[in-house]
Amino acid sequence: MTDVTIAIIGAGFSGLGAAIKLQQNGFEDFVILDRGSDFGGTWRDNTYPGAACDVPSHLYSYSFAPNPNWSRSFSQQPEIHQYINDVAETYDIRSRTRFGVEVRDARWDDTSQRWTIDTDAGEYTAKYLVGAVGPLCEPNLPDIKGINEFGGEIFHSARWNHDYDLTGKRVAVIGTGASAIQIIPGIADKVGHLDVYQRTAPWVLPRADRPYTGLEHWAFKNIPGYQKLCRLGIYSAHELVSFGLTYAPDVLKPAVRAGKANIARAISDRTLREKVTPTFKPGCKRILLSNLYYPALAQDNVEVVTDGISHVTETGIVTVDGEEREVDAIVVATGFHVTDSPTFEHIVGRGGRSLAETWQSAGMKAYKGSTVHGFPNMFLMIGPATGLGHTSMVYMIESQLNYLVDELKKIRSQSISTIDVKADVQDSYNASIQKTLRRSVWIAGGCSSWYKDADGNVTTVWPGFTFRFRNSLRTFDTDAYTITREREEISA
Fold first, then answer.
1. Mind listing the pLDDT tens digit for each residue in 332-345?
2. How far apart are CA 83 and CA 38, in angstroms?
3. Sorted alphabetically, which InterPro entries does this protein's record hold (predicted)?
4. Are residues 385 and 481 located together in one domain of the fold?
5. Could you read off the pLDDT of 424-471 as tens digits, one per residue?
6. Per the confidence metrics, is the pTM higher than 0.90?
7. Are 121 and 180 within one domain?
8. What DSSP letter does each residue of 188-256 carry, written as one string?
9. Nearest to 91, CA basis, from 151, 154, 140, 21
10. Count of beta carbons in the 10 Å neighbourhood of residue 386
């Protein structure tokens, strides 16, 4: 058994960021546990053709670790993955990380007032648990009859099989979300025929992507504050979008015009245009960015299928109209378990209740996206109501890290043994969020999305401006928590 003060589960942006901030503030006794082979999380696991970020490079990086060497305004997966690992090396976090370790269970013990963490590499105990697994880590496989009987090649976008050559093959892509709109242009020229199964047409806007010039790279490296100013400008422009998403969806009408113009530029066939034109307001589902998606759909070897899937046979996919389309390979691009992650079943708090049980009965709630009543000394990264539809999650992660560090400082200075957010505080906080969401595009936009849970409640996204979130997490509010203090030693 290995005993540490702080155990961090996950080595992506949030887990690595937590480790760096802990180290910088004098918290040395921690370990990161991750099932992968290196840092990166979703940017390590998603290696499909065309994988890239839809947030500009300068904003999708740590503010404390700017990268003047970004090759493009929007970075691709290999470059982001390398950046995360470079940052880990700079801050010497690898020596504190255990890779190839699968966390099977994490349980709070009220007697010892510690977390017991069961892994396939032995048991760990920790006074504090930081859950940094991220919402995009567990692939969501579609519940389609017969899919397990398919005789060809099948894999999820987040588990891409690079050993299988798609050249000349008949391929089906199920889904038209963020991953799919990058995969489809990445394979359309290579495959013999491509069927794209679309349930709902997304809004896809032009992507202002370009390589950085030599002069820009020189400026990033040599002009003090220039890269920080670029980051601030990008952040400010993106914040304007949040007003429309939360308070006035009609403000986003220019996005409708831009999206339809993006379709018209690439697709001349009227029937296909109608198929790929969204019927809901922009932002209700995630707004996507691509200059290549619609041209790929317009290719002669690509067919967009809008009829629902009935079942899968050994040789192909049958739609509800009875037509079977034979394929050699199926690429499943149906996203991730966000509101129903299997991880929730394996984090167990007071009374033996798991996160899954707690959220199933009371709804997916946390306080400031970070702490959950009944789970003492646990801190969630990218928890409920922290997701975004308009800007960088790294900004939200760093906001949470401010809160985490201040929490641990106060715990240390005030000799606190356990903290547990009060139930009424958590309920009041979430009621306020739901009130803000009433006019939002996620409620009134006319779509269903992964932003909502099984009951139709929007539990994943933060409504409004992100600087409001950061301001609310600048200091740890001890009054919001039930605390116990360490017993004083009694001298004989």
1. 998 765 556 678 88
2. 12
3. FAD-bind_Monooxygenase_sf, FAD/NAD-bd_sf
4. yes
5. 999 999 999 999 998 899 998 888 777 877 777 888 999 999 999 999
6. yes
7. no
8. TTTSSEEEEE-SSPPPEE-----BPPHHHHHHHHHSTTHHHHHHHHHHHHHHHHHHHHHT-GGGGHHHH
9. 21
10. 23
